[in-house]
Amino acid sequence: MATTLVIRFSSPGDVAIAVPVLYSVADKYPDDQFIMLTGSPGHMMFVNKPSNLTVFPVYTNDKHKGIKGLLRLLRELSPLIRKKQLKVVDLHGVIRSYLFDCYFRLRGYPVAVIDKGRKEKRRLVRREKKILQPMKTSIERYREVFEKSGYDSSLHFTGLFSEKPAKDRIRIGIAPFTKHKGKMYPLELMEKVVSQLSKLPGLQITLWGSKEEREKLVLWAEKYKNTTLVAGQMSLREELFLMNRLDLMVSMDSANMHFASLVETPVISIWGATHPYAGFYGFNQDPTNAVQIDLPCRPCSIFGKKPCFRGDYACLNQITPEMIVEKIKAAL
User: What proportion of the chain, given as a percentage, has pLDDT over 70?
Assistant: First the structure.
């Protein structure tokens, strides 16, 4: 019986992508123990997890910050990992996880590390002579790491919940926010999407976001009929339960796309500076549900952090509200 330490500290969206792989492997190897190191509050997304999977929350901005924090984390983990058959699966591939890798390698434990394909991604987003072709998905890259550790990583995960509850109306979630400007559809245009959807019969719209983003959505909920604000009111686990009740989620290239994917809710995703070819599309999502336009400069960023060198964010501003609404109608 082996114990496998799985490392993926952040971000929540990337942690969500790991869930189908981790659940599939843990189910397939019930005699092994799996310990998932992940950030808070991402640990709350592990609903209905396999019994041999332990989720260990890591507080990288608090008690586990810096070298001292990592040493503290190792001490806290020691009762769980004092095993002769210990493996380390690094799904993160950053300096913090490399320090962990080095620690365990020096003690003779096998360590498998993700290949993020950084060179290929740079070719995808460079200004000239882009190589515009699909790369390995994050799911595939995560599976490779488990395969290096001797596990069969074939997927059989379908969703966090066994079934969808019955509903009396069509429920659509709108998650208009994301961390970086290069991925966020302009709010004034997204409001027009909400306005048009609110006029359709039989629809119930819910608005999603964090506590900090809640104030920007209050007016929409008050202004448009059949529109409810849920932003900033629930824990991540509660949000997943509610997402399971949705017929459709509209989101950016963001964590909400991946959360909805975990509960088998179809997603209409809006893409600007980033591109599905980079491998971060939602698990089991229909590729035709991506809303995007072709521009010679696009994609220009893997994560949406880079400022627009054109200065106008045409990749987002040229997507009309009507394009999104029509995609929603087609999906429904």
Answer: 99
What domains, with CATH codes, occur in the chain?
A: 3-148 (3.40.50.2000), 170-331 (3.40.50.2000)
Beta bridge partners, 174, equal 207, 250
Specify the DSSP element, H or E, that contains 88.
Answer: strand 86-90
Coil, strand, or helix at residue 83? coil
Asked if residues 257 and 249 have their Cβ atoms less than 8 Å apart, the reply is: yes
d(CA 286, CA 296): 24
Beta-carbon-side half-sphere exposure of residue 84 (alpha carbons within 13 Å): 1
Residue pLDDT, tens place only, 25-65: 999 999 999 999 998 778 899 999 999 999 999 998 889 89
Report the run of H or E that residue 148 belongs to, with start and end: helix 138-148
Write down the pTM of the prediction: 0.95
- By DSSP bridging, strand 170-175 and strand 203-207 are parallel
Alpha-carbon distance 134 to 137, whole Å?
8
**Which value, to the nearest 10 degrees, does the dihedral of the CA atoms of residues 215, 217, 221, 226 take?**
-150
What is the distance between the alpha carbons of residues 114 and 144, in angstroms, rounded to a whole number? Answer: 7
Backbone angles phi and psi of 106, in degrees to 5:
-60, -20
Residue 169, amino acid: R
